[in-house]
Design a protein that fits this description.
About 55% of the residues lie in helices and about 15% in strands. The protein is an alpha+beta fold.
Length: about 110
């Protein structure tokens, strides 16, 4: 029974750490870029877009398709960086815990 109580305390502590980490990730910004930096997107590590910057050289009517593709690429780059940051933080948080492989906690 003592082990069960200790395990419950560990679970509660981990839940609090996860909540803290989620709040921290919401406050962290990542930047995605495409086109050699001509399109830049700033987002939170959780994926909420905050800003987009487009170089003026891309503001040509006949290059609309290119601009749209670059925006999508920059958003996806920012999203990938945010997911990598979340994964890194989660690994630090769960280091040493007996978590089964493949179990996703977020």
């Amino acid at each position: 029974m003592k082990d069960m109580f200790g395990m419950m305390k560990q679970v509660q502590a981990m839940q609090q750490k996860m909540a803290d980490m989620q709040a921290e990730l919401e406050a962290l910004d990542v930047e995605g870029a495409s086109g050699g930096g001509l399109v830049r997107v700033t987002a939170t590590a959780k994926g909420q877009m905050k800003n987009i910057a487009i170089d003026e050289s891309l503001m040509k009517a006949d290059e609309k398709d290119i601009l749209e593709d670059l925006i999508v690429a920059a958003v996806n780059d920012a999203k990938g960086k945010g997911e990598a940051l979340m994964q890194e933080r989660m690994q630090k948080l769960t280091a040493g815990l007996p978590i089964p492989p493949g179990l996703k906690l977020f």
